[in-house]
Design goal:
824 residues; Serine Threonine Protein Phosphatase 5, Tetratricopeptide repeat; DNA-binding; zinc ion binding; E_motif
Length: 824
DNA sequence: ATAGGGTTAG
């Protein structure tokens, strides 16, 4: 015997006791079964005293690799090591417990190997090594003169299926035919499985269809294939057909078809399968119950899922994962994390899937602390090389606004997948880092990574944010070239983007062209009309929506109420607020209350707005008082403005903007001492007004202008031009609004006004584009009153159309008027 | 010694 075969050191307890205890733990049925198994094999050339040897029976009962090691000395002592049966059994056991290395240590030194030994070794390779290794061992068998048998092919085919390696699988398929196994049910089933696992489900079905006879496993294979390839309806259809053809589903069928049912979220079908499970007596099988937990939670019945989960006597980690996922899917991430904690407390070791779900829940809650805890756990469980988990980690950090950490993880991530890129692009886009999002998107292109619909849906909103029509058209072109123009999600994003880039009519054209629309599609279009001050169009589209099949949701009402608000349609807005609850059973959220205060306040019904706030059933938040203060600024109401502002100072001590608004209200009323007080309060608290910034797109560049800034290369030219432009519009009737600035000389006042970012941007636009071109400006704050007035005159004297998108809405300036009707 | 199908996921 080779010294390499020396078994691991013996444990302190005598060998036989350990093994016997294990054997005793097994039921007597198992022992009998093993004996029967061994006797059945007596047709081969192994003498009875070998296969009836107690060691052979005991060896078969080993439950882990350690027990196998303990056994080897016993085999050696009984001079059984050279018996084929024991050699093969050892290889088989090492293979069963996943140690290819130890299987080889037995296999390699054996001088005269029987065929069975090769077969078992091939199985070890197919199950525990790379496909290449398995294939080269198969070649070696050929060289060593071992004729292939049917099992060899099925092992290899299964491995090809598991690796989705269709080309290698096809090689085996050819050899199968050559060796005369073309109609073997097992082999054919492996082929069906191979195609299904290689995402060629239609090919798989063709094979399935051609089979002369089909057993239960064939049905299960094709049903699982459809289910795993996202063709849930086909899977369910075949589930019915198999029963019509007289096959009774077994637990594997159930576990294959339930995910399909979960996929389409059909509670009705889920319940009927549950009924079948009970009738067939599968109701205590862990995997069946786990699949039921999944179905119920995916159909929105977390309560029912939890009842099943709680009733389970045994749970696998998958059961926990399904339940945790059930909570996150149903928007109860708190419960999800609680269950995750419970799982850890019970000592169940989480898997990659568990951690992905827990990270998802953290992202959902913005819970950075728990997220970082899981990040550490991930190191402990050595899951940092699992790309899927790392993707979830990136998403979690992005959602928790730690884009810096996310970017670092992304940079260092080995084997990035499309999902990794998508997570990062989305992360940038959702954190307002538009340029980074676009740069990463371009980098993907350079690295030849083809975007999918998720990438598009992440990057399009970034462009909407940028609001540059040229870029909007570019991505639209890309959408068409990459054939995403039939994807509802992508198209909805485009509708929203065009509206946000000032091109509402283009948005509507796309909207009309779509064959399928989601609620979000309608919402995007209604909101688009709203922000462009086209309240009537918004209301009309909303009525049209109410006639159709797509039900409005809470966001729809938010869009339509704010559309009414932008257009002064107070009565309509109030009506919608009422029917939201009465006709649609939707509870208004804080945003709806804010929109209502905005609706009333903007229209000058300040007392009504204030009463509305007092009568709110929930504690009003920042947005509500913010709307109130804004309305007070428009309608010059010092009294209510003060009340709203003081509430805001309490609720949001960091927000400098409210101080500025209040100061403006005081300035309008010439209450200069109060203005000074607010200013000094701001200074004391270190609060600053967000600097105004306007963007213009010119040819291939986006130019940004800050108020009073002289950093732009054309700065000098711009200021000179502005001076003459101001003279021109003054001649047309423009009067500078000096009311907001009081403590400087009149000419300085004008200078300050004239250096506002939007005026600089407009001047730059006029200077650098040919007559007649529409100018698009994007501003980070709201347009100031003086700029608004000046822009109207500029549109008149230059004959240009100027579209300004501010924080809240669009202003289309044309021939001396604005689409907002001075109502913003 | 020896075959094929199955639950959770971004």
């Amino acid at each position: 015997m080779s010294s390499k075969l020396r078994p691991s050191p013996l444990p302190s307890t005598p060998l036989s006791t350990t093994i016997i205890t294990t054997a005793a733990a097994a039921s007597s049925f198992n022992v009998q079964h093993s004996v029967a198994n061994l006797q059945r094999r007596s047709t081969c050339h192994i003498p009875a005293h070998i296969y009836n040897h107690p060691s052979a029976i005991l060896l078969e009962l080993c439950t882990c690799i350690k027990e196998v090691h303990q056994f080897i000395p016993l085999i050696v002592k009984n001079a059984l090591y050279n018996e084929h049966l024991f050699q093969t059994k050892l290889v088989s056991l090492f293979c069963k417990f996943g140690s290819l290395r130890e299987a080889s240590r037995v296999f390699d030194p054996i001088p005269d190997k029987v065929d069975a030994l090769y077969h078992t070794m091939l199985k070890a390779y197919a199950r525990n090594s790379s496909l290449d290794n398995a294939f080269s061992f198969f070649s070696r068998m050929n060289i060593d003169g071992v004729p292939p048998i049917i099992y060899n092919f099925t092992y290899l085919l299964k491995a090809c299926g598991d690796n989705s390696d269709l080309p290698k699988g096809k090689q085996i398929h050819a050899q199968l035919i050559v060796n005369g196994y073309a109609s073997n049910v097992f082999a054919m089933n492996c082929i069906v499985n191979l195609y299904a696992k290689s995402r060629m489900i239609h090919e798989a079905y063709k094979m399935f269809d051609k089979m002369p006879e089909r057993d239960l496993v064939c049905w299960n294979t094709i049903i699982a294939g459809y289910s795993q390839n996202g063709l849930a309806k086909r899977a369910l259809h075949l589930f019915i057909r198999m029963q019509e053809e007289g096959r009774s589903p077994d637990p594997v069928t159930i576990v294959s078809v339930l995910p399909a049912c979960a996929d389409i979220g059909s509670l009705r079908i889920g319940k009927s399968i549950h009924g079948y499970v009970v009738k067939a007596g599968f109701q205590s099988l862990v995997n069946v119950l786990t699949a039921l937990v999944d179905v119920y939670s995916k159909c929105g019945c977390v309560g029912a899922a939890r009842l099943i989960f709680d009733s389970m006597q045994f749970r696998t980690v998958v059961s926990w994962n399904s339940m945790i996922d059930g909570y996150t899917h149903n928007g109860d991430s708190k419960q999800a994390l609680q269950l995750f904690q419970e799982m850890l407390n019970e000592g169940v070791e989480p898997t990659n899937v568990t951690l992905m779900q827990a990270l998802h829940a953290c992202a959902d809650l913005g819970d950075l602390v728990e997220g970082e805890f899981i990040h550490k756990l991930l190191y402990k469980l050595q899951l940092t090389s699992d790309v899927s988990v790392m993707n979830s980690l990136i998403s979690m950090y992005c959602k928790c606004k730690r884009i810096d950490i996310a970017a670092e993880i992304f940079e260092n991530l080995q084997g990035k997948t499309l999902v990794s890129w998508n997570a990062m692009v989305l992360g940038y886009a959702q954190n307002g880092r538009v340029t980074e999002a676009l740069n990463l998107f371009c980098k993907m292109h350079l690295q030849d990574i083809r975007p999918d619909s998720f990438t598009m849906v992440s990057v399009i909103p970034a462009l909407a944010e940028l609001s540059v029509l040229r870029q909007a058209k570019w991505i639209h072109g890309l959408v068409i070239r990459t054939s995403f123009d039939k994807n509802v999600f992508v198209m909805t994003a485009l509708v929203d983007m065009y509206a946000k880039c000032g091109a509402v009519s283009t948005a509507r054209k796309l909207f009309d062209m779509m064959d399928e629309r989601h609620v979000t599609t309608w919402n995007a279009m209604i909101d688009g009309y709203g922000t462009h001050g086209l309240g009537r169009a918004a209301v009309e589209l909303f009525s049209e929506m109410r006639q159709g099949a797509i039900k409005p949701n809470d966001i729809t009402f938010l869009c339509v109420i704010s559309a009414c608000s932008h257009s002064g349609l107070v009565e309509e807005g109030c009506k919608y607020f009422t029917i939201m609850k009465e006709d649609y059973g939707l509870e208004p959220s804080m945003d709806h209350y804010g929109a209502m205060v905005d609706l009333l306040g903007r229209a000058g019904q300040l007392n009504e707005a204030w009463d509305f706030i007092q009568n709110m059933p929930i504690e009003p938040a920042i947005n509500v008082f913010g709307a109130m203060l804004g309305a007070c600024k428009i309608h010059k109401n010092v009294d209510l403005g003060e009340k709203a502002a003081h509430k805001l100072f309490e609720l949001d001590p960091e927000g400098g903007g409210y101080h500025v608004l209040l100061a403006n209200i005081y300035a309008r009323a010439s209450m200069w001492d109060k203005v000074a007080k607010v200013r000094s309060a701001m200074e004391k608290n270190g609060l600053q007004k967000t600097p105004g910034c306007s963007l213009v797109d010119l040819r291939n560049e986006v130019h940004s202008f800050y108020s009073g800034s002289t950093h732009h290369p054309q700065s000098e030219k711009i200021y000179v031009f502005l001076e003459t432009l101001m003279d021109e519009i003054k001649a047309a009737g423009y009067v500078p609004d000096s009311n907001s600035i009081h403590d400087v000389e009149e000419d300085v006042q004008e200078q300050l006004l004239n250096s506002h970012s939007e005026k600089l941007a407009i001047a730059f636009g006029l200077l650098n584009t040919s007559p007649g071109t529409t100018i698009h400006i994007r501003k980070n704050l709201r347009v100031c009153g003086d700029c608004h007035n000046a822009t109207k005159y500029i549109s008149l004297v230059t004959g240009r159309e100027i579209i300004v998108r501010d924080m809240h809405r669009f202003h289309h300036f044309k021939s001396g008027t604005c689409s907002c009707g001075d109502y913003w």
